[in-house]
Amino acid sequence: MAGSWDGSFDQGSQSDDSYLFERLHIEPIYDAFVCPLTKQVMRDPVTLENGQTFEREAIEKWFKECKESGRKPVCPLTLKELKSMDLNPSMALRNTIEEWTARNEAAQLDMAHRSLNMGSSESDVLQALKYIQHICQKSRSNKHVVRNSELIPKIVDLLKSGSRQVRCRALETLRIVVEDDDDNKEILGEGDTVRTIVKFLSHELSKEREEAVFLLYELSKSEALCEKIGSINGAILILVGMTSSKSENVLTVEKADMTLENLEKFENNVRQMAENGRLQPLLKLILEGTPETKLSMASYLGELVLNNDVKVHVARTAGASLISIMKSGNVECREVALKALNQISSYEASSKVLIEAGIVPPLVKDLFTVGANQLPMRLKEISATILANVVNSGYDVDSIPVGSDHQTLVSEDIVHNLLHLISNTGPAIECKLLQVLVGLTSSETTVHNVVAAIKSSGATISLVQFIEAPQKDLRVSSLKLLQNLSPYMGQELADALRGTVGQLGSLIKVISEITAISEEQSAAAGLLAELPERDLGLTRQMLDEGAFQLIISQVVRIRQGVPRGTRFVTPFLEGLVHALARVTFALADEPDAIALCREHNLAQLFIDLLQANGLDNVQMASATALENLSLESKNLTKLPDLPMPGFCASIFPCYSKPTVITGLCKIHRGTCSLRESFCLYEGQTVGKLVALLDHTNEKVVEAALAALSTLLDDGVDIQQGVVVLCEAEAIRPILDVLLENRTENLKRRAIWVVERLLRTDEIAYEVSGDPNVSTALVDAFQHGDYRTRQIAEHALKHVDKIPNFSGIFPNM
Predict the structure, then answer these.
(1) Which residues have a Cβ under 8 Å from the Cβ of 550 and sit 6 or more positions away?
(2) How would you write 360-420 as a 3-class SS string?
(3) Which residues form the U-box domain (predicted)?
């Protein structure tokens, strides 16, 4: 034969590889070997009665066609009718053909062996690989021949070829060679061959990736190789990635998935899959594995870092099983389950799933149990952490019974027990239990019960003392709790902070730290902002300790943009501005408060803060502060000194001339300034406050309207105040506030301002023609409280809707 695969082909019209290899021969082929019907070498030759020989399958098909067409059976060659369709096996010919085939295949295999090296042409190598595929697919026994001929290592070497086609064909050939042959798989598993195959998974060419996945799938059917595949760095990671890839073809994704399913036989592989985001095998073992396997997998689950969506999936799939393990008597099992549940519960949505699975009652029991069955303190800390997570998830925990007599987490006895634990455990558990109380006080439905329990237990001072704890997490948790409590027990907290033990000083120290703004600073400022603003004792102490100066410096620092990019800037600034505004509530009683406002020009600072768009709480607190400052203006205005009248003028007033003094404030009739007397008019503040009347937040609108109303207050020139508001084009926005009727407080404030405006005849005349305003005033007159009805009555008189002699109120 020629030394090349190409020279041995008997060219024909068919392109099928199997056909070509059947026509490829070394020894001469005899005509007697070839079936006249198929034109191929016969495998099962049979002879007819006339001595003609055919392939059994071919002649049977011929006879069948004759019968189906209604013809009598004839010989395909002679076309003469046959008396019998008996087929006589030609054993001698068959044996001769088999011997000839064996010699031919041996020679072909030898030629393939010689072609499988880097020195052969690419076409010879590809043809040799195709031939090996052909004989393996032709007969399973040929796979043993390939193995015994030591062809497998030579095929493996071709994986390093520089030809992409050769590499792809080699991977394909190896797959066919090892298919359903454990011995060949064992040979392929030796050395670094599997590692080489895995490298193809990350190859840039999709065809090589596809062939590598198909080959690994065949290898993964062997348990021995499952462990080896999983031990190769990156193998499972890449396979998991392929199963979720949108760029791979469907068949490749399917084979990657099936390979991973085979690899699940080993726990180490399952762990790797879980680590790389394929959690279902691990969860399945937690649900269905042996007790030892469940424990092992749950333990590993507790060590994983899971994204939030996965936490929800795990909670739904294995949450109940983990809770069951947590309730068992074995401390080791409970520890494993608690750690896993701690991981899962750190996301709100997954916490809610765990609550519905029944996690709260056993957690509470674990925390409160003492004696022989109590958990070690390290596990109580985990239980407290999980409880804090689930309570802060937003779930209505008040509906969950946790004890006898239908007790819930906010029942007085339960809260007392929590407070007792807080006072008698270490900082780590104290912190988590405080977080539990933070969650319980964050809901309107549960906060009142917790407040009542805290008051009845006398724990207020103990809770305040945590502000000075050395552990930062403990301080932050306590501050957040106190901030939640302050709207409901602000005076008690203010009294506790005002003592001599230094908690107020600690609070101010935290706020004044010049660092990146922290959660602790934000919580501290929030707490201070929520304390009763009219508590003069607290304000006095803050003045004495220089707290307001420190707050001012922090506000200025934030406005200058010094601390950047922290998520606590906004709540910190809101707390600071509210805390700073409290000094304006003490102006009438504390000369030092006035001095502070003048020294730091706080009126201007609050005016600037009015323009903090998007920060509603800052704008609201600033407007309130400006209201308080403006109310004090009439007391701080420097009234002019009028000259004494002369002798004649004192006797004969007709000889006197009125003294004309220029430069006086038209509102306060004296010498005013923004810095010294906090005059809004002199500070050109009116327009900025009017702009806020169009705000979407009614509380901001109310605060702005309250500040504007100081220009119409008793003790100032109301007529001039109306003029100032007219100049600022404030009349229509004020009337709009009345007509919008957003809240009762805002409506009452608007009625008061509108009545003052209507004292001016020109405005009253214009408004009298507006039926909407009249309707709003009538509605307030009929349905408002006593004071509002009185004011509305006066307003209606100004627009002639009620006679001036009418002072009768219905139903009175």
Answers:
(1) 508, 511, 512
(2) HHHHHHHHHCCCCCCCCHHHHHHHHHHHHHHHCCCCCHHHCCCCHHHCCCCCHHHHHHHHH
(3) 28-107
List Cα–Cα distances, 641 to 345, 590, 632, 656, 751, in angstroms: 73, 26, 21, 17, 37
CA distance 18 to 33: 17
H helical segments located in 637-742? 647-651, 674-677, 686-691, 698-709, 718-727, 731-740
What letter would DSSP give residue 682?
A: T
The beta strand positions in 175-257, using DSSP E, are: none
- Which pair of structure tokens corresponds to residue 738? 């009345």
φ and ψ at residue 61, rounded to 5 degrees: -65, -40
Strands 45-47 and 88-89: antiparallel
From CA 519, how far away is CA 504, in angstroms rounded? 18
Cα(730)–Cα(784) distance, integer angstroms: 24
The burial class, CB within 10 Å (0-12 / 13-18 / 19+), for 342 is middle
Dist. CA 220–CA 198, nearest whole Å: 12
Number of other CB atoms surrounding residue 353 within 10 Å? 24
Question: Cα angle vertex 438, ends 436, 444, to 5°?
Answer: 115
- As a whole number of angstroms, the distance between CA 33 and CA 23 comes to 12
Q: What is the tens place of the pLDDT at every residue in 675-702?
A: 999 999 988 999 999 999 999 999 999 9
**218-252 pLDDT tens trace:** 999 999 899 999 999 999 999 999 998 877 788 89
pTM for this model (two decimals): 0.74
Q: Is the pLDDT of residue 26 over 70?
A: no
User: Tokens representing 152?
Assistant: 């497998």
Question: How crowded is the C-beta side of 752, counted as CA atoms within 13 Å?
Answer: 21
Instruction: Tell me the pLDDT tens digit for each residue of 430-443.
Output: 999 999 999 999 98
Whole-number Å distance between alpha carbons of 704 and 725: 13
Q: Which amino acid is at 88?
A: N
- Contact between 131 and 149 (Cβ < 8 Å): no
Q: How far apart are CA 482 and CA 648, in angstroms?
A: 71
276 pLDDT more than 60 = yes
Mean pLDDT of 775-782: 89
For 253, residues 6+ apart whose C-beta sits below 8 A from its C-beta are 242, 243, 245
Q: What is the pLDDT of residues 631-654, one digit of tens each?
A: 999 898 887 755 555 555 556 565
Q: Encoding tokens for residue 456?
A: 């009845």
Sheet holding 53-55, edge to edge: 53-55, 45-47, 88-89
Q: Which is nearest to 265 in space by CA: 322, 321, 221, 215?
A: 221
Q: Which amino acid is at 189?
A: G
